[in-house]
Amino acid sequence: MINRSLPDVDLLYIHWVNSGCPNRNKLREDRDRLPVSLSLYEGLLPYFTSLRDEPLVNEIDEAKREERSIVVTSDWHVPFQDKEALKLFLNFLYEYQPDELILNGNINDMTSFSAHPRIRDLANVFHDGKNEREEWLTIAHLLRQILPDSKIIYIGSQCHEGWLDAWVQSSPILVEDYNYTLPGWLKLDDFGIEYEPEVYDVLGNKELLITHGTVARSKGGNSAYATMEMEGTSIIQGHTHRLAQVFKTTSIGETVAVESGCLCQREPWYHLKGRRLMMDWQQGFVLVNTNGNSFSTQCIPIIRDGEDKPYFWIGKELYK
Predict the structure, then answer these.
(1) What are the domain boundaries of the chain?
(2) Beta-bridge partners for 312
């Protein structure tokens, strides 16, 4: 979209096909931006005649300025992520280009820190943790390449990411070192990723909170519903590896409780007590749209075809 009046445009960064129309799909594929000279732009002026009456940026309604598209994802459990599902999700982000990406806790499994801390094991545990971290650093670098202009927020959790704190507290030296906090350990600053310790307030008025959460009920949707009841406001939470959306209407208004699914392996990589053939987990993520005053949420389930390949639909568009 050209957000300037025609006389002020010196260069037009856009692809053109033989028909003389912009090829949006091509632009999405390689994201090259080819400069087109002013003379060529003037030659194509008839196509842009309709833009003459379009409002300039400073005339756009303020509500329009605040429109944001947000993608919420949780529970990747790197290095135990489902690589096929994550690849599909990253390809979607590349095309969708949301304004914000929320990494809602348990993105990293932090498995090296899962045992109860013992001071004599400190060096070995952090050595193993650094090896596990390498896979996250590769993914984080790729995320920033895919979303060069998007805001990315990492929300900490009290469970898996919280294990790091238990080990750091066992050393008076590490506890004062920023490198051994979660944002320091995961090098979030290097990738321009913001950190929220537990909760992200989407609208800034506590009407929609995103948190990894600690509640885990036996049925899908019940965990987020319980969190919504405790907080008294709309909630998007992770933690359960389930995908669900539940609404509640009162005399005050309508609230929604959402569980944001997972992108980890569908079979547990840890020891289970007793025999369990199937986990009640669902891969997927959540779309949020807001204009700063109101919002809508949509759960996107990742489905499997006959060859067990992941895919999903958003409206009429198929991603696979």
Answers:
(1) 6-59, 64-319
(2) 319
Do strands 100-104 and 295-301 pair parallel, antiparallel, or not at all (unpaired)?
unpaired
- 29 CB-near residues (< 8 Å, 6+ apart): none
- Assess if CATH 3.60.21.10 describes domain 64-319: yes
C-alpha 303: how far from its chain's center? 19
Q: What are the phi and psi torsion angles at 72 (to 5°)? A: -115, 125
pLDDT at 92: 97
**Length of the chain measured in residues:** 320
Closest CA to 209 of 244, 247, 237, 177: 237
User: Residue 301 is encoded by which pair of tokens?
Assistant: 């389930």
Distance, in Å, from the CA atom of 107 to the CA atom of 262, rounded to the nearest integer, reads 9
219 by DSSP, 3-state: which?
coil
Q: What percentage of the chain's residues is helix, strand, coil (to nearest 5)?
A: 35, 25, 40
What are the counts of helices (DSSP H) followed by strands (DSSP E) for the chain? 9, 16
Task: Answer positive or negative: Cα dihedral of 175, 179, 180, 181.
Answer: positive
What pLDDT sits at residue 267?
A: 84
The string of DSSP letters for 252-298 reads S-EEEEEEE-B-B-SS-SS--SS--S-----BEEEEEEE-SS-EEEE
pLDDT at 276: 61
pLDDT lower than 50: segments of the chain: 1-45, 47-52, 56-57, 59-60, 63
Neighbouring-strand partners of residue 290: 68, 295
- The whole-angstrom separation of Cα 72 and Cα 62 is 25
